[in-house]
Design brief:
two-stranded antiparallel sheet, 11 strands
């Protein structure tokens, strides 16, 4: 209000009228398409260099359909007709419901359950030619998967589950639709990708020396583990576990020992010290009444200091940092 020179307050009703004039409406937000990471370099590289060219090639041997669902016949390349199956997962909640509906003006208020309730995940394939994934000819197998996600329920849909489902689906479509070539398309979800068992990952390494192996996933409800693959440094192998002739034979060296072997331990300690100093410096800036922009400016100017000088407010004013 002060920004526009208005000194008097306005009523809530007037504020609502202003919002409507500006194009705002009081309603639930519309749901759109997720776009997180769509333009990341690795995503665009795979999309433009592999996915789109491959899909374009496959579509030359697929049937096209009109908006009414009728096939549009035209020239096709020689070879088997291609059926493209798209894979996806959906989660449904026990308390799913429309938030807006038509109610009689005299209808009493209805109590609803709090929260979304328990969830059920469904993972399946669908194609424009045959619809949802088929069952096997004997009716005993299906690629459709149901899961009650949660730590204390069925767990979570992992890459191993994705691979198992894909193998079942390939067997079934080969049996049910043997006259076609089948292609399966997955979205770029993290559960669809997996590191090799035992692959290097600094996120999982413990700091100290201990008996340790990295987890690789559950088999029959039990977590399996394996030793992490050895590393290389300056072109030379660097074992992550002590050799058999060492007093601590077979134990994982730990991040501290690995960094010491690489001559990086002191550098890592310096980084931690710099980070701690930066945190203290920002805390000191806020305690002196600085805002975020001022604190960032002061942190850059007094790099390496844990606290800011008492003259910081005057310096900010002279630098016109508000």
């Amino acid at each position: 209000m002060e920004k526009h020179g208005i000194t008097r307050t306005i009523s809530i009703r007037t504020a609502r009228r202003y919002l409507r004039v500006l194009g705002y409406r009081f309603m639930e937000p519309k749901k759109g398409q997720y776009a997180d990471g769509h333009e990341r370099e690795d995503v665009t590289s795979y999309r433009d260099g592999i996915y789109v060219p491959r899909l374009t090639e496959l579509q030359r041997r697929t049937w096209k359909y009109s908006r009414d669902g009728l096939p549009e016949y035209g020239p096709h390349r020689d070879g088997k007709r291609v059926i493209i199956w798209y894979h996806d997962e959906s989660i449904f909640y026990a308390h799913d419901r429309r938030r807006r509906n038509w109610y009689h003006k005299d209808a009493p208020a209805k109590l609803y359950q709090k929260g979304d309730g328990h969830s059920l995940m469904v993972a399946d394939f669908v194609s424009q030619d045959f619809g949802w994934s088929p069952t096997s000819l004997d009716g005993t197998r299906t690629a459709r998967r149901f899961l009650k996600p949660g730590k204390n329920r069925d767990g979570y849909f992992t890459c191993d589950d994705i691979c198992e489902q894909a193998n079942v689906m390939m067997d079934i479509v080969t049996e049910v639709y043997p006259d076609f070539e089948h292609a399966f398309v997955y979205d770029n979800a993290t559960t669809h990708k997996k590191r090799a068992d035992g692959s290097l990952s600094a996120r999982k390494m413990p700091k100290g020396t201990k008996e340790w192996e990295t987890e690789t996933g559950k088999v029959n409800g039990k977590m399996t583990k394996t030793k992490m693959t050895d590393a290389t440094f300056n072109g030379q192998p660097q074992p992550l576990y002590f050799p058999s002739d060492h007093p601590q034979a077979g134990l994982f060296k730990g991040m501290a020992v690995i960094l010491q072997e690489r001559g990086l331990y002191d550098a890592a300690k310096k980084l931690l010290a710099d980070f701690a100093n930066r945190c203290l410096k920002f805390a000191d800036a806020y305690s002196k009444g600085l805002n975020g922009r001022q604190a960032a400016w002061a942190a850059r100017k007094y790099r390496g200091h844990r606290v800011l000088p008492e003259s910081i407010l005057r310096e900010l004013e002279e630098a016109e940092i508000y």
